[in-house]
Structure formats: structure tokens, C-alpha cells
Design goal:
The chain is mainly alpha-helical and 164 residues long. 74% of the residues lie in helices and 0% in strands. The longest helix is centred in the middle third of the chain and has 73 residues. Keywords: Cell inner membrane, Cell membrane, Coiled coil, Membrane, Protein transport, Translocation, Transmembrane, Transmembrane helix, Transport.
Length: 164
């Protein structure tokens, strides 16, 4: 804005007092203040309108980018679906004429047997004594079993009713 110091304001006040006169100076000062306020409000409105338009333009651009990305994704999905559909139809047509050799029953049984052997080796690789020593649970106790196991010996079994 305009850089106006105290000396410049005093000089403007003296010139206004001489030019306008002491009787009309308060009225002129009020009118000048109201005009200055109106000008500031108008400038602020213009600034806010410009910023709203810029934000709106950015939002429109963002919306267009999102729509383009969505259409690209839609096209890639439709291409993938059509390729998968062609592949399934080709496999179906080939499956009717001959059985593929990779899925024979004997080979599946061999794969299942090796899988079970590997799973058994993975799950039983850690000895039970090490699990107990390191704090790993070897079996799970229910809540009632834990209460019965860790109940102090001085307390007897409850009768099962609330009134004793």
C-alpha cells in the first residue's frame, strides 16, 4: 500500500484545514473515510472473486484429470476382461478336445503329498521343550480351564449359585 508516515499525515491535515476550512473539515473527513472504506471493500471483493475463479479453474482441471484417469482405467479393465474372456474360451475349446497334461490326477496327488510333507516339516521344526522354555504356547487353554488351573488352593469349588 501507500507508505504514509506521521509527518505526511500532519502535512495533509494542515493543507486540508486551509483548503476546506475548519467548519467543513469533519464532514469532508467522514466522507473521505467512507469512500476509502468502500474502495477497500470493493478491492477485497474483487480479490476474493479472482481467487474463487482460480480455485474453480483448478477444480475443473482436477476433475478433468480424474475423468481421464477413470476412462483409462475403464479401458484397461475392459481390455483385460476381453483378453481373459478370449483366454477362457480358448481354454474351454481346447479342454473339450483334449485334457491338459499339467492337471492330471497323478501329478496333483504328488504335489499335494509334497506340500503336506513340507508343511509338517515347517510346523514341527521347533521342539516342544524349546517352545515351553521360550514362552511360546504349545496348546491353548480355555478361560474356565485357566481359572481352574490357577485358582488358589484355599478356595473351594463354588456351588454354582449366587446365594451361598
Amino acid at each position: 500500500m501507500i507508505d504514509i508516515g506521521l509527518t505526511k499525515l500532519a502535512l495533509i491535515g494542515v493543507v486540508a484545514l486551509v483548503v476546506v476550512g475548519p467548519e467543513k473539515l469533519p464532514t469532508v473527513a467522514r466522507m473521505a473515510g467512507s469512500l476509502f472504506g468502500r474502495a477497500q471493500r470493493y478491492i477485497n471483493e474483487v480479490k476474493s472473486e479472482v481467487s474463487r475463479e482460480i480455485e474453480l479453474e483448478e477444480l475443473r482441471k482436477m476433475q478433468q484429470d480424474v475423468q481421464e484417469a477413470a476412462s483409462d482405467i475403464e479401458q484397461s479393465i475392459s481390455r483385460g476382461m476381453s483378453d481373459a474372456n478370449k483366454y477362457v474360451h480358448a481354454a474351454w475349446d481346447d479342454g473339450l478336445s483334449s485334457t491338459p497334461e499339467t492337471y492330471k490326477v497323478e501329478q496333483l496327488a504328488i504335489k499335494a503329498k509334497s506340500f503336506r510333507r513340507k508343511k509338517l516339516a515347517r510346523s514341527s521344526a521347533v521342539p516342544a521343550w524349546y517352545k515351553q522354555q521360550s514362552g511360546q504356547k504349545s496348546r491353548v487353554l480355555s478361560g474356565a480351564a485357566r481359572v481352574a488351573k490357577y485358582r488358589p488352593s484355599g478356595q473351594g469349588k463354588s456351588s454354582g449359585s449366587f446365594f451361598s
